[in-house]
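Good morning C.,

I know you're traveling, so I'll keep this short. The sequence:
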Amino acid sequence: MKTNDSLTEHYTPLLEGTYDCIDRIVLNAYCPMLLVAGGVRNWYRLMEGSDNDMSDASMMRYAGRFSRRVQSFCKKKNIPFVHFQTGERKHLEAERLMPKDKSFIGIFAVFVSRAPSLLWEVKKFDNGSIDIRRKKKTSLVNHYYFHIMDKNWGHITVRMCAHPPFSCNIILNGHEWVEHHKDYNKLEVTKQGNCFTSYNNGEKLSQIADTLKINGQFERVCQRWIYSCLWFVMDKKQQESTGIKYNFSIYQIEYSRNLLFKRGRQMDDVYQKIIDLTRGRLDIKRLKTIFGRKNRPYNHKSTAPAPEVRIETPDYNLTIFKIHFGRLTVKLYDKGESTLRAEVVVHNTKDLKCKRGIDSFGEIVEKLETIMGSFLSNLDYAHVATISEKGLEELSSPSQAGANRLAGLDFNKARTKQVGLVLLALSMKPGGFTSKDLAVEMSNKFVPGYSCRNASYDIKKFRGKALVIKVHRRIKYQLTEEGIKTIAAILCVMTKEVPPILSVITSQWKEQKKKQLLQMDKYLFVVHEKCEQIRKLQNMKLTA
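The tokens, ready to paste straight into the viewer:
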């Protein structure tokens, strides 16, 4: 069950539909036996019959075998085998090589690129004993990217290291899963890039996407292909004799909420207003606009299939803003003619503080839904900010927290205003923020030497006015709905309205003073002339 948000509810009259979907998923695949030194020794004995000749060179021979077999397979099957530089993007080439035949199943391209990996190091002593341990530093070695068409998932990628312990990443996409679902064609869906830009039932589309939470979906697709890729270093008989078995965990995941507006122009107006009203308040540093070659239509209905849109050359203006919190990113951007997309990207699921196995996928998705709902709701509170006259008067009055009497909030003071700005920026942080977070941001932006003690005191004053609450069982804080609206409204007045008014008043006062001085100068000049004339007459009389 997805978590509702205030932004979606606020603009419901303008929406034609919404749907939630999981985007990119990266799974870690690892063999527990090859992660410990004893397991590696036992595996080598089963492969070679003995570990007497075990060395770094003998371990590296597996990488050579892997490379020869892959290249021979690609040559035999006429499969593209492409080398890439480290860090070079490969997805565009994979899309270009994707088979046109929709019934094709199997490997359609293999890429190779160097990437860092932790390898095993073998040391031999004079007495014949062997010491096996992990290298302290990562090594830059070849990784092979197997691009595969799967019957249920469409395009998937298996990235495998050619050196023991043969660690893997499996890259999937939730939109590909939905597209290959049996009920997909009933929804009259138009897909543009990695987004559904037109459909007749957003609720049904979300229900299809929710089927990913069923245990076993990831397990089956991983088991279907990973051992086929491992075949290039160990055939099926060797895999069975050595007892190689992979386990899987979720490493990275993206979750999106897509709002389909009835008219593209309305979506563009709404999005630009959200950006204008929240960029300064929420400290959005990364804002990128790529200009397209078309204007958004008044109506988005079209019977023609939508063209594929690349980010480098979009049909319509593409504006993206991102907010980073460590290894978690939330972002908002427009997609296609009339779709506004919000995304939560977890770069390492360790930051979610939960189990990361495939069996815990449902729990991970629920956490992402909560983060998404909180992000969009806080965004709505920040750009639709209101405050009552009574509330403004009460802020400056003292408050009570237990037995302690606290001072009120005076936003005319620089420190209170600065703390309010930082609190608004931290309101987007999933799970809340700590006093240390506030102290670090204040020290970096406004007050050098601002300590955690100062932060705790200021947070306590905001808590006294119920603008900030403590998260249950943790020493973390969150802004309330009224807190975001109140702080945003006051800061809007203080930073956007009052300074321009004061500058106008000051400029008018200067002009008036200038006019008065000019008039005074003229008057003094006339008096001076009269005095000179009188002095000349007196001198003439004296000489006569």
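Safe travels,
E.
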